[in-house]
């Protein structure tokens, strides 16, 4: 089991990444039923992920304030905690606004939960990308062992560089076409911190204008989370369940995955090369 454990972890992480990407369009695989059930499944997968890494988590937690603990390890630990909290919030807020699994369940301001559910999901997407970037060496190592790939370091470096350039360019396009940065900035607005972008647009607290969520250009898959998320804005300014299944054709799930994996890849690439630069700088200082 110990020899297969890295492969199990990689497969579980990949499955969570694909599923989370699919959640950005609630018409995938039939609508809200898949969206809500898959969200709960991710919660179970997270608990499994923590269980598989429990020994590591205990070890680092006990050494968290140890001066000899590498800064990268402490950074990774903090990121994992933040990622866990954001995922918990996304799942919890999703249950609060549920229309299938917990139909009729109400808790507090549903409008706030629906908007914050979407906003924190965009933040979580970035955190997942950073998480992947910090563990990219492990991902590649396990993948090479799994596929029995053998190649020289020079050839591997060339292939990796070409692939990285292509993926990053594709990801940057997705970030631009989905207006991802604007949506990410709205996280502060949800929690009452009016961002500069929000101030320029004249957006009030909790209030997302239609340019942000309704009328912006569509991403690679032809739809956006905000356009197909099962909520439409009413004249009163609230969010309620929209006609998300009214005879519309289910979107191409591969396109949805590529769109949001592309966005993840941008943050993963930036993190990976930033970490690589930091390591080289550290070696140069200590040399």
Task: Provide structural commentary.
By secondary structure, the protein is mainly alpha-helical. The termini are far apart. The protein has one domain. The protein is 68% helix and 2% strand. It has helices spanning 5-22, 32-52, 54-62, 71-96, 110-134, 136-147, 153-177, 180-190, 196-201, 210-213, 225-228, 253-286, and strands spanning 231-233, 239-241. Strands 1-2 form a two-stranded antiparallel ribbon. The protein is globular. The relative contact order is 0.14. Residues 194-198 and 200-247 have low confidence and may be disordered. It contains twelve helices and two strands, in the order αααααααααααββα.
Uncertain parts: 194-198, 200-247
User: What is the N-to-C order of secondary-structure elements (H for helix, E for strand)?
Assistant: HHHHHHHHHHHEEH
Gyration radius from CA atoms, angstroms:
20 Å
End-to-end C-alpha gap: 41 Å
Q: What structural category do the secondary elements indicate?
A: mainly alpha
Mean pLDDT: 77
Strand adjacency order, main sheet: 1-2
Helix percent reads 55-70%
How many separate domains make up the residues?
A: 1
As a percent range, the share of strand residues is under 5%
The major beta sheet can be summarized as: 2 strands, antiparallel
Overall form:
globular
Number of helices: 12
Number of strands: 2
